[in-house]
Amino acid sequence: MVVCGTLRFFAELNLIKKEKGSLNLITCTYPKNNRVAQVLQHLGIFKMLNLNCSITPDRDDVINWKTASGENTDTTKAGEILETQSNLPRKKSKNLYRGVSEAMTNVSQHAYLDIKETAKRKGWWMFCKEENDQIFVAFCDLGAGIPVTLPQSLEKNNEKKLFVQIWKFFFPNRKKLTDGELIRVAIEVKRSRTKKSHRGKGLLDMIKVIEKTKCGNLAIFSNRGIYQYKLDNSNPIENTRNYKYSISGTLILWSLPLKIEGKK
Q1: Is 31 in contact with 22 (CB distance < 8 Å)?
Q2: Which pLDDT score is estimated for 264?
Q3: Would you say residue 33 has pLDDT above 80?
Q4: What is the pLDDT of residue 258?
Q5: What is the DSSP letter of 28?
């Protein structure tokens, strides 16, 4: 099972249960693939769907995934939960996961803003795994999505003029931006503002960690778009794509080395 798809599925099931009170309308059969069965058991999905399963997850690529979730836009809880589950030394774990949760909190707050239609969909879900000197974080919220909330964010922060300037610089021939391109421009707006205020915010914090460690990857799916960032010999590589269907929210996949700042 692909991490991003599994997380989106997990989030939707939890949201349906929250709104309807149960998942009685959904049926489930046992998968033939043992790894898939272990994933569903490890995440508690069989239990959510009232399906008894005797399988005990024992695969490292299953049981090493930790989970956290919350119902508001403050993801501080995520850092605390993942910190207690971490195999890292306490101080290093605290610094790493608190930083992750701060960045995610900023992203989640912007996912909803004042969009009434997404008020009932508030919540966030996170998967995290430490493996082979790498940390993998997958984060999901089912808010309106970056492309939808961006206009309000620009208005609130008086960034409309800067947004247009960056749009024309990166996509001079585009009369309308795709969701993927909107994510890219939103990040560049924050990058430009940060140069003046010397402060990072949310997604830009994640990029800065990759730049600092010279390693790692970031992928942001929001509605129909995706933005990807990585380094190749210290040179940033950024790509955007668009899909036919929307994921109705935001998914963030982030990987970086555990040896931050050269510390072992």
Answers
A1: no
A2: 44
A3: yes
A4: 72
A5: -
Taking only the tens place, the pLDDT of each residue in 143-200 is: 888 898 888 888 888 889 999 999 999 999 999 999 999 999 988 988 887 665 545 5
Over its C-alpha atoms, the chain yields an Rg (Å, rounded) of: 19
How far, in Å, CA of 31 to CA of 121, rounded?
Answer: 29
Separation between Cα atoms, residue 83 and residue 102, nearest integer Å: 13
Q: What is the mean pLDDT of the chain?
A: 82
Contact 236, 229 (CB under 8 A): yes
Which structure tokens are listed for 149? 């909330």
With b meaning 16 or more CB within 10 Å and e meaning fewer, what string describes 191-220? bebeeeeeebbbbbbbbebbeebebbbbbb
Residue 5 has pLDDT above 80, yes or no: yes
At residue 137, the 3 state secondary structure works out as strand
**Interatomic CA distance for residues 5 and 107, integer angstroms:** 19
Indicate the length of the chain as a whole number: 264
CA 234/CA 230 separation, integer angstroms:
9
Stretch(es) of the chain classified as CATH 3.30.565? 66-262
Q: Determine contact, residues 125/4, Cβ cutoff 8 Å.
A: no
| Interval 202-235: pLDDT, tens | 677 778 878 877 888 999 999 999 999 998 888 8
- Structural class in CATH, domain 66-262: alpha beta
Find tokens 């082979």 and name the residue: 132
